[in-house]
Write a structure and sequence with these properties.
globular, 75% helix, mainly alpha
Length: 415
């Protein structure tokens, strides 16, 4: 029995190839943080994306929301296809590198003068590249011996990237034009592609996943459990609420006359605020029951969404915008750790970015349609309704009454 515990506590022994390192090393964690930030740059760009398309490329709310939704929708389809075959991939790093390179090329060639159709094609192709990259990166994170802690670290790294993105880019866009938005995104994605080619961590599945792979010879790969499916569904609805709310933060601030300086300050604060929920969630892995997080945080998110679009006060606007971000980040870290424990194959984790992007794809087009049909206050009502659906999914997943996120994992010797 003692020997079994020692085996599970030892780092994954993987021969490194070229410049690559194993997953559970300092270098491996650092590279995963970098490529995750690059692949998920769309989350950092969300508060500016729709506003840039509307103001800089003269699109209406529905067209701008549709472009973002096309990108995310393409990411979902490609990500789901790859995630279902994640255990069969011989080189996840190659998939990540090619996908990020394709996305970088497409965003570098977005041209407003070519018309809406051309922009739509570029967004779709970029999504087809980015989706598989995100899935294999998060699937690799799920293979770590400390998935909750590592994912929290990547979330903090993404928050730092978003803070710099939102704090600096708007000022340069006012000086050099809206086209700079897509050029910067292309550069970030390209950086992620280069890192994936040279340094993407190599590893092999753990013993639990190895058993599943061995059983696959008979083509009897077990399906995802209902618990995993309901957790993914809850993340879907929270992501829809998140993207719907954040896509129009800049526009509603401008419509209310807060001024460019105050709105930019709120966008920067939103990025910095993201640092704290991820870090706190990582620290509370074994101290806070996961069911409390999964049931309470969708309610908090819905309340902030209602305040954001239901109250005309600037203080409420600023507080609610930051709160919407914090709720999803905190919940996502706990849900990621839970999925890593209930699905040893890592397929649920590899699928989670596609599921969340599916929710994110619904948000902008739903929000744009509601604004065009009614006004910004309609998003407050929609936010509450979507939040109720998220709570229902998490409550039915069977996590209520469970303890903390699970038994502690021993830290890798090289971390």
């Amino acid at each position: 029995m003692k020997q079994a515990r020692d085996t599970s506590a030892s780092p994954v022994s993987v021969p490194a190839r070229g410049l690559a390192h194993g997953i559970d090393t300092r270098a491996g964690w650092a590279v995963l943080c970098i490529v995750q930030c690059a692949a998920m740059i769309d989350l950092a760009a969300a508060p500016l994306w729709v506003g840039t398309l509307m103001k800089g490329f003269s699109l209406d709310a529905r067209q701008a929301g549709a472009l973002v939704s096309l990108y995310i929708g393409a990411s979902v389809l490609a990500g789901l296809l790859i995630s279902s075959q994640f255990n069969r991939l011989r080189s996840p790093g190659t998939v990540a590198a090619v996908g990020l390179a394709v996305a970088a090329f497409c965003f570098a060639n977005v041209d407003g003068d070519a018309g809406f159709l051309s922009m739509a094609v570029m967004h779709v192709l970029a999504g087809l590249g980015a989706g598989p990259a995100v899935s294999v990166i998060e699937g690799t994170i799920g293979r770590s011996r400390q998935p909750h802690r590592l994912f929290a670290l990547t979330a903090v790294a993404l928050s730092v990237t978003a803070a710099a993105f939102l704090a600096i880019l708007p000022w340069f866009m006012r000086a050099y034009g809206s086209g700079l938005f897509f050029a910067v995104i292309a550069c970030i994605l390209g950086t992620g592609a280069v890192c994936s080619v040279l340094f993407f961590p190599v590893g092999r599945p753990g013993e639990a996943e190895g058993a599943l792979l061995a059983g696959r010879k008979g083509n009897d790969r077990p399906a995802l459990t209902n618990q995993a499916r309901l957790v993914l569904a809850g993340l879907f609805f929270m992501s829809a609420n998140h993207s719907m709310a954040l896509s129009f933060v800049e526009r509603v601030g401008d419509a209310r006359g807060y001024g460019a300086a105050l709105v930019t300050a709120v966008l920067s604060a939103m990025a910095f605020i993201k640092l704290f929920p991820a870090a706190i969630a990582g620290a509370l892995e074994h101290r806070l029951p996961v069911w409390r997080v999964l049931v309470a945080l969708p309610v908090v998110q819905a309340a902030f969404c209602a305040l954001l679009y239901g109250s005309p006060l600037f203080a409420t606007y600023a507080l609610a915008a930051c709160g919407v971000i914090g709720a999803l980040v905190f919940t996502h870290v706990f849900a990621f750790g839970l999925l890593a424990k209930i699905d040893p194959s890592s397929r649920a984790i590899a699928m989670s970015p596609a599921i969340m992007m599916a929710g994110s794809a619904c948000g902008p087009v739903l929000g744009g349609s509601l604004i065009k049909a009614f006004d910004y206050s309609a998003l407050a009502v929609a936010g509450v309704m979507i939040g109720a659906l998220a709570v229902s999914c998490f409550a039915r997943s069977g996590v209520i009454g469970t303890g903390a996120a699970g038994p502690a994992f021993s830290a890798p010797e090289t971390i």
